[in-house]
Design a protein that fits this description.
With 166 residues, the protein is mostly helical. Helix content is 40%, strand content 6%.
Length: 166
Amino acid sequence: DGRQLILVATGNSGASPASTDVARYTSTPQSRSPSRLLAFALGGTGSVPETIVQEFPKPPLPRQPESIAKEGGVYFEAHWCVGCHGYGVVNVRSSIPDLRLASAQTHAQFAAIVLGGARRDKGMPSFPTLTPGELKALQAYIINEAWAAYEAQEAAKAQFGKRGTK
């Protein structure tokens, strides 16, 4: 219709290892924003929607033994979970679920999801060769990373206020 637009891609892109690693080293959790495409036009009157700060709820399961969780971190990288879910389970707001936000229901279905392919239709492949011990360690790692995110958030709130920033 003769109207020219300028499109700007913003946010932290996809969940490829490169984008999660870049975001990890070039931004803070508080500064990361969801991926979106912004359109600007001369005479436009819209505004950019406010970015919602991700809140980490208290994890649904207790902390796991550190030795098991540490082993799980090795499996998380060895089985290339980082390829979709990010190094250190740090998701940079892509379309891939942030495992630190996994619900009690998701944890209850963990074996069916990871071993059995219960979420294959959503793009999550199965890993049927994992042993029960490896699966337990992997889940322990995810749980402890969720606790780390929650505790860091709560500490920031205590120091800086509700949003965790000055």
